[in-house]
Amino acid sequence: MLLLDLNAPVERHDEPYRWAVAHSIIPEPTARILREQLPAPQDLHPAERTGDGDKTYRMAVLPLIHRGAHEPGMAKVGEKWHELVSHLQSDAYRDWVNRTIGIDVTDTMMDIGLFVFRGGDRISAHTDKPGKRATHVIYLNDDWRREHGGHFEVRTGPDLSISPYATVIPGGGRSVVFARSERSWHAVAPVAAHAPQFRLTCQVEMWNLG
């Protein structure tokens, strides 16, 4: 069974920063097994930040890899997740990121985690920390409708009263990969309270050494 399709169709964009949407980089049969091998809800760590900081959020997280090393969360997921994590750290995957957004991530350290968003969960507009070189957010839900919320928002600045430059529905085999810069504003819209399932993502973060 194909785990990562590094020849999957890609839509590349250069404005307002370098980002791309890949379609079915994880084929649906594989995504279905990953969903079946998710950890128990009690193994997820609630993460919330409120207030007037530069980034606010609410979600649940299970770290799998931190700076290239296994986290305890790896013991909570199934075999297919272990295979995925291995593939996401491969030279072939790093080359795919380079080809897709034109950023060399050969020498980066990786963080990989499972992020779960329930009704009302969201992330405010931010650009990511300067030490991050690129991020790839892989959506694992098969059927996710626009009215369920939780869209990835490509933004031109921090003001959420301004409409997003573009939005991506977080499901149906889509994933978003983008280069970090001072202009890489992005957000996650709140998941609708009536969404019939949790918003499931595998997130790959590529960090500079040191």
TrEMBL record:
Its cofactor is L-ascorbate. Keywords: Dioxygenase, Oxidoreductase. Residues 17-207 form the Prolyl 4-hydroxylase alpha subunit domain. The keyword Transcription does not apply. One of its GO terms (molecular function) is L-ascorbic acid binding. This is Putative hydroxylase. It comes from Streptomyces malaysiensis.
